[in-house]
Design a protein that fits this description.
The chain contains eleven helices and 14 strands.
């Protein structure tokens, strides 16, 4: 009962003096503000450090892929130079000839659609030619340390598949004519390379092949010389046959000086494995999702940078990547041979350190305690002052506050001393009111 009375009395004193209320709230706000400022600075430093780490790991990983992509596709340039300068393959385009020369099948069913097939037997199955092709592919693969990652090479003189190399074994290819087939993919490749004259490497993927996730890359080969002198026949007149032999009909468009193209296949799953991508992010307790940015290019432009790749946007991801969003991750952009790659990297539980909620709670509790102590001290001081004011004249209090001696003089004073007999005993048996 006494505790409840004391609480009510203190509360009444607290709320009846606005100065005490304001001072207590001011202490709470000041302590809370300073505490939050201090821990927020520490939290922001941790968040910034984590985001910098995410950006660094993402950039480092992207750098690895950019380097490996270039290394994987450099052999195509070596193969192109071999066609130009070795002389081993010069005759292939001429012997295969223009469509429909050596036409074997029309609208044959192949993976992905229908294609016209030429008969390359007796041209591309020459043992000596296959040995040279095998030696060439093996050399460029070993030079770049690509064994196991680039698993297939193909050569298409006159845009007709002639030579193939799978797993280090040279063989004759299937004879598909990419320039004169309605196959959607190979039509796109031939059009991009020779009608739109694609600059550099023509990269497509990833797509699912029997090997798994795969990229394929195409590189056009041009004769780079003026062959118009060969268009003249023995009698000095223009030979239409010789002139047309110097052209490739690519879906109705005559393209001069086009020899054909080479291509290779990259095992994307193997490249990701060698990159230790998941391990890199797992070591810093982060998740990721690597995508190819689709809206960075003209949607009307076909080919690997346009709508042909729109179904293969996702390149790689970690197990919890679906939980990443704009609040707990950042985006890191990287230019690659395959357009712009976007890596979303973050922490599923957020960037804030684990101690952040506890630190906020501690600051609030400490602020409340100091505010309460301030209120308690001020209330007790006010109650003490009020008690003194009831017992001592205000004039005396003012003198005491100025460290002056309190001496009051009265001219007429009577002092009466009396002792009531039996008062002590009676006072012990009655209540104060009585």
């Amino acid at each position: 009962m006494s505790a409840w009375y004391e609480f009510r009395h203190n509360a009444k004193c607290f709320f009846s003096h606005p100065v005490i209320v304001f001072a207590s709230l001011a202490v709470f706000a000041l302590v809370c503000g300073v505490g939050m400022w201090a821990i927020t600075g520490q939290k922001d430093a941790v968040v910034q450090e984590r985001q910098n780490t995410a950006a660094f790991v993402a950039t480092e990983t992207a750098g690895y892929f950019a380097s490996e992509f270039k290394k994987a596709f450099l052999p195509l340039y070596s193969l192109r130079e071999a066609v130009h300068h070795s002389g081993y393959f010069d005759h292939l385009a001429t012997e295969i000839g223009r469509y429909p020369n050596r036409l074997l099948k029309v609208n044959a069913t192949i993976p992905g659609g229908l294609a016209n097939v030429r008969n390359v037997t007796g041209i591309c199955d020459n043992p000596e030619l296959l040995a040279k092709w095998d030696n060439l592919v093996d050399t460029v693969n070993k030079e770049q340390d690509l064994n196991g990652m680039v698993f297939r090479y193909r050569m298409a003189p006159k845009n007709v598949f002639c030579l193939d190399s799978k797993g280090g074994n040279a063989m004759v290819d299937n004879g598909v004519d990419t320039s004169n087939s309605e196959h959607p993919f190979w039509s796109m490749v031939a059009t991009d390379l020779f009608i739109k004259r694609w600059e550099g490497l023509h990269v497509f993927g990833p797509f699912i092949s029997p090997k798994g996730e795969t990229f394929c890359t195409h590189l056009s080969i041009w004769t780079n010389k003026d062959n118009r002198g060969d268009w003249v026949d023995a009698e000095g007149g223009l030979s239409m046959t010789n002139m047309l032999d110097d052209h490739i009909n690519v879906h109705g468009t005559e393209v001069q000086n086009a020899w054909g193209f080479v291509m290779n296949y990259l095992d994307w799953a193997e490249m990701k494995k060698r990159s230790k991508m998941e391990e890199r992010f797992s070591n810093v307790a982060m998740d990721f999702e690597l995508n190819r940015q689709e809206h960075d290019v003209d949607p009307e432009m076909p080919g690997p940078r346009g709508e042909a790749s729109e179904h293969y946007q996702l390149l790689a991801k970690s197990s919890n990547s679906g939980l990443l969003n704009d609040d707990n991750s950042i985006l890191v952009y990287t230019d690659s041979l395959h357009g712009t790659w976007v890596n979303r990297v973050g922490m599923v539980d957020g960037w804030e350190p684990d101690w952040w909620p506890a630190a906020v709670a501690c600051v609030v509790i400490a602020s409340l305690l100091l505010g309460f102590l301030t209120a308690s001290t001020l209330v007790k001081s006010q109650m003490h002052r009020e008690l003194v004011e009831r017992m001592v004249p205000k004039s005396a209090i003012r003198k005491l506050e100025r460290n002056q001696t309190v001496v009051d003089k009265f001219n007429i004073v009577s002092v009466f001393f009396a002792d009531i007999v039996g008062y002590s005993g009676a006072a012990g048996s009655i209540n104060p009111a009585q």
